Amino acid sequence: MQRIYEPENLMEGELLQGMLASEGIEAHLVGRDLLGGVGELPVFGLLALAVDNDQAHCARELIAAYNEALPMSGDEPDSFPDVLVC
After folding, report:
1. 3-state helix, strand, coil in the chain (%, to 5)
2. N or C: which end of the chain has fewer CB within 10 A?
3. What's the whole-model pTM score?
């Protein structure tokens, strides 16, 4: 197993774990259970995605492509109901 990526938070880690699973790569979110001790543990470096050695290169490429992706223009709504615009 290789640690291939350190997500910023649990949500990003689970999102990327699901994306990798959809591509047939089984990823483990290391450190998920340590988040309850954030007050006692250092905040950085707790979470990591780990995959089998033979899938590490492909998983890194998929995560890099995800991080480089830009949102599609035209998907923004014309107004944001219930949002105060200052």
Report:
1. 40, 15, 45
2. C
3. 0.71
